[in-house]
Design a protein that fits this description.
12-stranded mixed beta sheet, 10-stranded parallel beta sheet, 40 strands, UDP N-Acetylglucosamine Acyltransferase, domain 1, flat, 5 helices, Udp-n-acetylmuramoylalanyl-d-glutamate--2,6- Diaminopimelate Ligase, Chain: A, domain 1, alpha/beta, 2 domains
Length: about 350
Amino acid sequence: MKFTAQQIAEILEGEVEGNPLVEVSSLSKIEEGKEESLTFLSNPKYEAYLYTTQASICIVNKSLELQKPVSATLIRVNDAYKAFTQLLTYYNEVKLSKSGIEQPHFIGEQSSYGEEVFIGAFSYIGNNVQIGDKVKIYPHAYIGDNVRIADNSIVFAGAKIYSESVIGENCVIHGGAVIGSDGFGFAPDEKGEYQKIPQIGNVILEDNVEVGAGTTIDRATLGSTIIRKGVKLDNQIQIAHNVEIGEHTAVAAQTGIAGSTKIGKHCLIGGQVGIVGHIKIGDRVKIQAQTGIGRNVDDDEVLQGSPALGYNDFNKSYVHFKNLPTTIKRINEIEKKLKD
């Protein structure tokens, strides 16, 4: 797919400086630009590459003053980084603009789908499933019975959505994600053997949620595991039964959240964080990578360490415990002198 500089400028509401008919078919970094590729310059540190890049089109700020001639056609905009991001979004929408129903596939009884949907080959859709308009279900996806998927959501190849799950509008579920698998519920009997506790709840993803590849979200024992609107989940995260994650919280990869924990709005949770069950984490909390959370957390706390300390307390303590071998050696020397 090719675009001219003029077409791109119209999308970005920019101004062409150079050949408006030059065409591009790919994107590139400015230092790696090749003919028929488009790039951008927003960081002044990379300005030197503007004069050597082989890219055919470069998006730049209107305020940029050229120090040398350039071979690329320029598209001048108010904010080059923002404009390039806008263009990436547009490009992705065009790339993913599939519709139609491929063969073979399976759609169960009493299931329905809206207009302009895409259902990829070898996908399985169970009974009594409701699929909205412009939903895309890629090949080898599994949609269980009684699932609801609202308008404009995307289920990528190999994702699994178990029965009774509810997916809101504009959600994205990446390949290998599992939504609605059983929670980890077992009870020991008199023989010490574990008996499974049926997990009969569901999972609810509200609007604009993104779930990364390989992430698993367990269904509730009773009620719902709820991921509120705007939440962004990275790859390979484990979210246990009856967890609730508040609006616009972001969670990085390999984090594990145990059952029935409630996390507030606008939190930032780093990679490999471990969070115990049955606690409450407030709003706007920031948790550094590899932190272990074993207590309730108030609004606006910033935490690090395992078990977690306040961020400033952790840094002050680190100054001391990184020097423990030297400190112990000094104490031993003082004790020897006192003994002598």
